[in-house]
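<instruction>
Derive structure tokens from the sequence

<record> Sequence and structure tokens follow
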Amino acid sequence: MSDLLGILMRWTHITSITFLAGSAIYCRLVAYPALEALPNSEQPRTSDRFAALLRPWVVLAVALAFGSGIYNLLHKVDPPKGYHMWFGIKFLLALHIAAISLIMGRPGLDLRKRMRQVTGSAITILLVLAISAYLRSLR
């Protein structure tokens, strides 16, 4: 049963991070540039509506990522040297992602500001994925 819970937590972690990465990259490369094509008077309302629809999913993904990540860390058996240092860096970057993701969902933000924030979030998520790949290679 413990193995099943471990597999479920790993799947939850990967799925939530994949959602955050995919939505950030999609927003930056597709959705927000499409919103720029709208008349200036429609951009704020449409951008706010888009953010409002995405926000609950982002909050859920952030909560699941942190919860499953902490579970996975606590159940890590005999981590190799340097693991905790890189995990700490990854955790701090994840806090950055969570903060930006939650701020972007607020109404009333300028579209250009949202684009800058989502760019920062996407870059940080890609860094977290790179660190995760490195941590996975440590044995």
Summary: The mean pLDDT is 91. Residues 2-137 form one domain. DSSP finds four helices and no strands in the chain.
